[in-house]
């Protein structure tokens, strides 16, 4: 009977941890990292410690496609440590500043350290899609994207990779 309880606890724990790590996010490391969009929207960027954080957006139908790129412009690899499964956050607001979307809201993230190594000249890419029937009813949207590393190359990271971008929704 005790063996049954132990197996049951292990199975339930595994299901819980797998469910906590589930999200629609994708991340990959690739060469280059051209943030060009097919639509008319442009990209915005922030540069910190030879890392270029770029936010690209494009509206396709009722979807806002968001692409966050972190390119390593240094001559050596960069190792980023994230303190949880949440590696970034996104907020979308209407012209009055009302929150329409918050990526992390109603999400559960693993409580595990995540390491990402970005080679020299390589780019780490995160993509999200927000769907809303209201996109075209608004004059513009404000998109705020943040990357959330706790350390870079073992050093505590106090700065923020944060971009706030206003885009036309017409």
TrEMBL record:
Classify the source by domain of life: Bacteria
Q: Name one Pfam family in it.
A: BsuPI
Which InterPro entries is this protein grouped with?
Answer: Intracell_prot_inh_BsuPI, IPI
Q: Which residues form a coiled coil?
A: none
Q: In this protein, which residues make up the domain named Intracellular proteinase inhibitor BsuPI?
A: 56-140
For this entry, the protein name equals Intracellular proteinase inhibitor BsuPI domain-containing protein
């Amino acid at each position: 009977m005790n063996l049954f309880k132990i197996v049951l606890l292990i199975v339930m724990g595994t299901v819980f941890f797998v469910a906590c790590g589930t999200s629609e996010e994708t991340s990959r490391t690739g060469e280059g990292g051209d943030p060009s969009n097919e639509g008319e929207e442009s990209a915005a960027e922030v540069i910190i410690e030879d890392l270029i954080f770029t936010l690209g957006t494009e509206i396709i139908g009722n979807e806002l496609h968001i692409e966050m790129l972190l390119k390593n412009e240094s001559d050596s690899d960069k190792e980023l440590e994230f303190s949880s499964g949440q590696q970034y956050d996104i907020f979308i607001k209407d012209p009055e500043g009302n929150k329409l979307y918050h990526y992390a809201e109603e999400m559960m993230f693993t409580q595990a350290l995540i390491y990402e190594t970005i080679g020299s000249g390589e780019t780490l890419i995160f993509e999200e899609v927000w769907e809303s029937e209201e996109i075209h009813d608004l004059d513009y949207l404000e998109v705020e994207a943040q990357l959330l590393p706790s350390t870079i190359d073992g050093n505590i990271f106090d700065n923020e990779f944060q971009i706030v971008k206003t885009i036309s929704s017409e």
